[in-house]
DNA sequence: GAATATTTTAAATACTTGTTTAAAAAATAT
DNA sequence: ATATTTTTTAAACAAGTATTTAAAATATTC
């Protein structure tokens, strides 16, 4: 028994995700969501009780989406250079596929952190990955510069995410077209890989 | 002839800057601004015609504030390692003093870039600094890895700005208190300096 | 100091906001 | 088919929005 027509609840959820990511919580109205979902305005509250509850539900999903792929890669049994390369490639792909995601998360958490951290078991999972073991072993046997996960991980992620979050300002500042930016971002990605690996891996 | 009482227009401008930085354009109401400035609601429109016009004026100032110190450092006649170190220290100080500034700029531009770029002569100034000459000379005489300004500058800035923009998420993710974060950020700052210099400077 | 211009005020404007209502429509159960 | 539940609808709600009004208060000019 296959449903050809999507359930209304899911239609609203998906529409809300699109609108929230694009406009943020404050910039989004219930009517925006209803219109995007092509549904009656009252249904958003019928299914989710309030704009706030709908937002919190979606935010949780989005935050997990942000961490999930990275987590998988962090736990892979591959050498550390490959791992760093994969994380950066994954970040790059994510920023191209969902250009609003990271700035959305950063901004919403910055504006009201207390409201947006539920029981995020994914945080614990990030803290306890195979990469952590690799860092400890590498530091012990002298192949890696001694660094904690919280020091190396932002160094890996910030380069790609920063230029994509600030895509428009970088385009304007350095007089790039969209096409220019594409090439530039690819270059930058390789610089970041090389720079981080050079710094972390000894010799 | 010194004014002890601040002019109303300036009181509103300063109040508006505080509120906009904290809540963003969409999250800020005219009444928020009037209340923060302790002035009658009608005065914001009396002096600035509309919330939009007031915002644009403030945004321009904020964007220049973001670039101004960096620009001064970029044009100093000092060796490139010191220059990188100074830029990072300056970024660090800025993020501590104005924690909302960078995420605000990034988010507002991301949401509506076309609306927020006036005749920014400061952009041109950033493109034509002494650092650019240093990069060209260093690449020519083999002391520096050949890189363009648009490649090295984000690498210098992203590390510090990224962890401060995501301060709350980093605190939560790595179970840090505010105090922990302070120490962590200092560590990270030195990692970034070393990593970028190691990568750019040959030998 | 009277006339004029500027600044400030409370109130009203027209409109949008999130949310609720109560009835209609559709789906499900008996 | 009838009764019951679930879903959808148009309309209304009270509160909040940016902005404007016109009069009052203040400052400035002559």
UniProtKB/TrEMBL annotation, chains A, B:
Residues 6-66 form the HTH tetR-type domain. InterPro entries: Homeodomain-like_sf (IPR009057), HTH-type_Tx_Regulator (IPR050624), HTH_TetR (IPR001647). It comes from the Bacteria. Residues 29-48 bind DNA. Gene3D superfamilies: Tetracycline Repressor, domain 2. Keywords: DNA-binding. The keyword DNA-binding applies. This is AcrR family transcriptional regulator.
